[in-house]
Amino acid sequence: MTATVPAECRMANDIARNLGHLPGEEAAEAIAGHIGRFWDPRMRRRLHEHVDAGADGLDPLVVAAVKLLR
């Protein structure tokens, strides 16, 4: 990944890597739970905006987690 990837995306991808050992839907739920509990609303908003703009550079599990957050 490059420095042009927003910080929220890098952090979300890190979470996905740490929880990627879980089965798909369970991993997405765990990622959504972590983001929902620990992230500031502004960070969540920027992540949602990035997904809406095409989700470039995001792990598919993060995209699934963002859909669960909505």
3D structure, described in words:
- This protein starts with 6 loop residues before the first helix and ends with a helix.
- It is an all-alpha fold.
- α1 (7-19) crosses α2 and α2 packs across α4.
- The longest helix has 15 residues, at 24-38.
- Helices cover 71% and strands 0% of the residues.
- The protein has helices spanning 7-19, 24-38, 41-52, 60-69.
- The chain contains 4 helices and no strands.
Helix content: over 70%
Radius of gyration: 11 Å
Distance between the termini: 26 Å
How many distinct helices?
4
Q: Sketch the topology as an H/E string, one letter per element.
A: HHHH
Shape: globular
Strand content: under 5%
Q: For the residues shown, what is the average pLDDT?
A: 94
DSSP, total strands? 0
